[in-house]
Structures are given as structure tokens and as C-alpha cells.
Amino acid sequence: MRILNLKPDTMILKRNLDLFNASRATLLLAPVTDSDLVTHGPELFAETREAALAYLLDRRGQLPSTPFTEFHPYKESYPLRSEFSVYLMGTFPPISYLLDLLPLAKLPQLVKPGGGSIKKPKVSFYHGQRCAQWKLFDPQLIPKTITPANRAAVRAALIAFLQDAGVNYVDVIDGCQRLDYDAKDSHLFNILPNLAAFEALLACPHENPLLIFNTSSAFGTGGLNFMADGSFQPQAKSFDIFLAVVLEMQCPVAFSVDGAAWLAVTPRNAAAIKRQMSSKLVFYMMLDKKVFNVVAGVSPSGATLNLGANPCFQQYCHSAGTTDQQSFKRFVYRNAIQKNLGPLWNLNV
């Protein structure tokens, strides 16, 4: 398994042999090879995190011009459970999570190299920066005002919600660096995939488990992207990154929109897959010999540009009698987490 590199100008994932490509003075660690990473990755990331926290405390929250290498902060707080058959699939949290690892009195904010500050996420948990996805699932989960006094209780409520619904939460990225201190997936590089999560999915004991991704090229009218040689060309979207990792693992992948006719992801089938896997909100995916239901739709955060031109959204507007984006997003995510996929299949084009 090689590390993936997200090229910023074209948003293409490419291989990169060196995880720590910043200066030794910044990272306090020398570069490592792929084989070193597979064996010692978590320890190296943990050591780098401790160095990052010491760096920030010493400099009153000033972030370095060359970003730290980061390791995922929430995996241990909500471990995967094999009895759950639904998986919420994200990418990687914004760097604001570091403030939850530091004494607030000593460091209330992070300072960007070019100016500007970064505050704590609303909730110290998956998708906790603005909590947009949680509000779509159930508006009662997120109070109108989140304060230091109720913040821990909100986090506990989110975990209880997932447990009651029988849902795992997985980010497909275990570690990475950033080109900028924002929340854009297109600015992540030197990506270390969450290999434990991929292994858990392949070993899932349930029939047709459900994967819910918050962004995917398959939802757009352009469909999944392939290069001239037929190789997959992922965009900076959670499903695309997931697929790139699976293909990198040399795991056989196939797609179906009816559960009967399957298209294997091969260079020979690239054009057919691009045609089939566009304007699709829900579909089947086979990894090796295991079949998954997949919902891979619109980003839950804010207004979505060009959503009005999306055929799935247009289908919803016609049937629901509204053009409200938030109404559509609530419809998608609430049906998905309840495993009520019939209404979503009806929106495919």
C-alpha cells in the first residue's frame, strides 16, 4: 500500500513515497518509507502530534508555514462495531481539533501564517466543525447554542444517536498533511488511508451493508472520472478517495444500478462506467465478492453550487413540490440513515 497524494491543481490522487516531506525542524521526524509507515505509522503520527502541540504552545498558537503531519483524532473515541451494518463515510476533520488537545486557558485559538484565527469546532467529534450533517439527521441533536457547559453533552448525544441507530462512523483518511489551513479535501496530501476501516468493511458479517458518503463524483452529471489510459481519476470527494484506495489495494471492484448487471472497474470498462455512474444517488458496489449498498450524494454543508442542474435534485423537486436544497438534503440523509432506500432509488436518473 502506497501513500496517496492529492495534487492541488487538478485534485488528482497520486502516489508519494515520502510521508514526511516537510522540514525536519518543523516535524521533528525524518522522512519514512512505505514499509516503515505500514509498520510504525500510528506511532510516528502520535509522536508528530505531540511535537505539534508543543510547537503551538511554545508559539502561542501560531501555525507553521509548513503544516504538520496529522493523525486522525476521533477514531479511538468511537471504535468500529461489527454488529452495526451502516457506515457513515467521511474524509478528515479540519485542524481545529488540535484545540481540544490543548489547555484552553493557555491557547484559545490557532493563528494562521498569513493572519486570521481558527476556533474550536462546535463539537469535538466527527463532522463537528459546523454540525451540518447532524442537523440533517435530527435538528434536536444540535442545540441553538453550544457552550463549554453543554459541549460534552452534545458529543455524548451524537454518540448515543449513532449507537441507537446501529451506525459506525468512518473517515477514509487516517493521516495527511495540508496545503492550507482550511477544510477543503482538495488541500490534503500525503494521504495515509484508513486501512483498518477497509479491512473491517471487507470482513463485515452483514449482508449488503450500507455505506453513506457525503460527497461523490457519481452524484454529478459528469460521473466518475477516468484518464485516457482508463485508470480512475478521483476528485476530492469522500467516495472518490475511498474508491482510489480500494483500487490501490488491488481489490476487485464492480458497480451495478439494478443488482443484476455488473460493470467491473477496469480500464476496458472506463467509458461504460462513466456513463452509468453519473447522476446516481444510490447504487450497488461489489468489493471482492461482497456487495454493499451505497448512498453517495450531495455535501451536507451549506448551499451547494450547481445543485439545481442535478437530475436527482430535479426529480426530488418535481415529486416534493419544493426547490429547497436543505429539504432535499434532509430527505436524502434521513432516509439513508434509516436504511429506507426505496425513495432514494426513485431519484436516480
Low-confidence stretches: 1-41
User: What is the count of structural domains?
Assistant: 2
Spatially, the strands of the biggest sheet line up as 7-4-10-14-13-11-12
Which bin fits the share of residues in helices? 25-40%
Per DSSP, the total helix count is 10
Order of helices and strands: EEHHEEEEHHEEEHEHEEHEEHHH
User: What's the story with the biggest beta sheet?
Assistant: 7 strands, mixed
The CA-CA distance between the termini, in Å, is 35 Å
The secondary structure category is alpha+beta
Oligomer: single chain
The overall pLDDT average reads: 84
Name the beta content range: 15-25%
The Rg value, from CA coordinates, equals 20 Å
Assign an overall shape. Answer: globular
Counted beta strands:
14
Explain the overall architecture.
The structure is a single chain. The chain has 349 residues and is an alpha+beta fold. The protein has two domains: 199 residues, no CATH class; 139 residues, no CATH class. The chain is 30% helix and 17% strand. The strands form four sheets. Strands 7-4-10-14-13-11-12 form a seven-stranded mixed β-sheet, sandwiched between helices. Strand 1 and strand 2 form a beta hairpin. The longest helix has 25 residues. The radius of gyration is 20 Å and the shape is globular. The N terminus is likely disordered.
Question: How would you concisely characterize the structure shown here?
Answer:
With 349 residues, the chain is α+β, with helices and mostly antiparallel strands. 30% of the residues lie in helices and 17% in strands.
